[in-house]
Amino acid sequence: MNPTPAELQNAKHEQIDWEKKVESAKVLDVARLEEVTDGEVEFVQELLDAFDESSTSDVNNIIKAIGSSDTKTLKLSAHSMKGACLSMGLNRAGTLCFFIEKGAEGLLEQEVYNGLNSNVSKQLEALHENLVSAKAAIQNYMQNVSEK
């Protein structure tokens, strides 16, 4: 079922302020990471390794989906990555994935695709930069915990 004109307009409007919402999210929510791992550095490293593997696959799928206008794969890959990010406390990256997923929901018609594609591309670029920052934050966390 195609979205109504009002839903399309809302999708366009929601994309405008994604940068503000992303900036307000924490790069790393240490409390969430500690909740998931019980503060065990070895487990944090295992999660980070698994995340590296899955996020690489998800990002590659997102890139391919954008190139082929495959909104289903774009939405599923962004959703998958959002869950992985948020479960580890990578709130900023998770928020970026949320907006990529929202963009995919609005990509159901060509005119919306044309209008939002540049946002999705910008979001993907921001996601890549944020993943680098998030991984550095986790490494810093592990180093600080190990030194205690």
TrEMBL record:
GO BP, sorted A to Z: cytokinin-activated signaling pathway; phosphorelay signal transduction system
Classification via Pfam families = Hpt
* InterPro entries (alphabetical): HPT_dom_sf, Sig_transdc_His_kin_Hpt_dom
- Please list the residue ranges annotated as the HPt domain: 40-141
List Phosphohistidine occurrences by residue.
Answer: 79
Positions in coiled-coil regions: 117-144
Alphabetical UniProt keywords: Coiled coil, Cytokinin signaling pathway, Phosphoprotein
Q: What is the protein name stated in its UniProt record?
A: HPt domain-containing protein
Which organism was this protein described from?
Pycnococcus provasolii
